[in-house]
Amino acid sequence: MSDNHDFDLIVIGAGSGGVRLARMSAQRGARVAIVESRYLGGTCVNVGCVPKKLFVYGSHVGEDLEDAAGYGWNVPLDQVRFDWPTLVANKNTEIERLNGIYGRLLENAGVTIIEGTATLADANTVVVGEKRYTTGHITVATGSWPVIPDIPGKESILTSNEMFYLPQLPRHAVVWGGGYIAVEFAGILAGLGVETTLLYRGDLFLRGFDEDVREFTATEMRRKGVDLRFGTTIEAVESDGTHYDVTLNDGTHLTTGLVMAATGRRALVEGLGLEALGVQLSEKGHVVVDDHFQTSVPSITALGDVIGTPQLTPVALAQAMVLSRRLFGDGQGEMDYHCIPTAVFCQPNIGTVGLTEAEAREAGHNVSVYRSEFRPMKHTLSGRQERCLMKLVVDKESDKVLGAHMVGPDAGEITQGLAVAMKAGATKAQFDSTLGIHPTSAEEFVTMREPVA
Fold first, then answer.
1. In the annotation, is 438 catalytic?
2. What is the CATH number of domain 342-446?
3. pTM over 0.85, yes/no
């Protein structure tokens, strides 16, 4: 650290990773500033994980009300009314609360918050508006932004960003995409009573997830009324201001009240001036870094979505902890990307950690597969036909559990505990010797005895 600069570190982007890096570095004695042009908390807090999960909760209430009858609750469903503006307003209040918390965390740590758009004048100078700030280190943590394919009428298509602030819900909606964002929003809209069609160009959505999980999720989503159309994409959209005429790749048309694209995200690096300074970008536009988040320019590092690692908040947080330690701690620390758990908050939820069956086989493992499918106990009285899937992928030689996958209520909550066990190297024998909590769905993970493959 040197007094020759205004700061020891300037972080560009106040998302989850950027805020954590700024706070931890300041607590280590560094003079830190963070620059943000939109909102504290980044995508996750404002137009990502947090508001999405709130919408998922809200969209599931309708099923809970229907299920109540089986448990003796007389809920007159013909009198139940859902008010979308109330959900949006309450969500906004919560996000504003979180924005305030992020601001106070930074201020209490002694971080200088600079509002505005940053540009790098040189490898040690950041320009925001009319002001120039010098620094020993610069970290790019600007995240990513939704991308809409360049088709006629793309200006009429919404992204996940705008979905969180819709003034009203349409009667019918088209969701375009096959990743977790598309699948989650299709479930949210359908749960809130919107006739929903999901279009995806591939033969099955959720590429990269276990094949059983993908197929099971498709079955359950169709059971809940979502119109899934695979091998289908959008060629053009025309709007009269109220309705949208969607031209599909097979020449047919859909008339809808909303079109949302969840067709990918790009690294948010435009206008920073990185390439002019010699910072290398990948073919996909991500900032290229080494294992220690170092770019091709010695004073510039990067972390989070902008470097193309798994786009998950806990990943960015962990990267920030490692980088802060390397810059202002003992100079040590490595990022471990092994066995990262994740969840998709579709309905029912997906929770997964470790290798898929296909990945395990491709890696040369001789595997045993344990699989269980059942109707959760709750629905024996509710009458709902929703089912649950659980799956373990095990290495036959070592007995080590390589992958755990679930589709069902609270899958994310259950998978978090499994991730701890797998990170510790748990074997199938140890799963088997663990007593279950009865009656729960989760106990199925420790009672599957006979392999199916």
1. yes
2. 3.30.390.30
3. yes
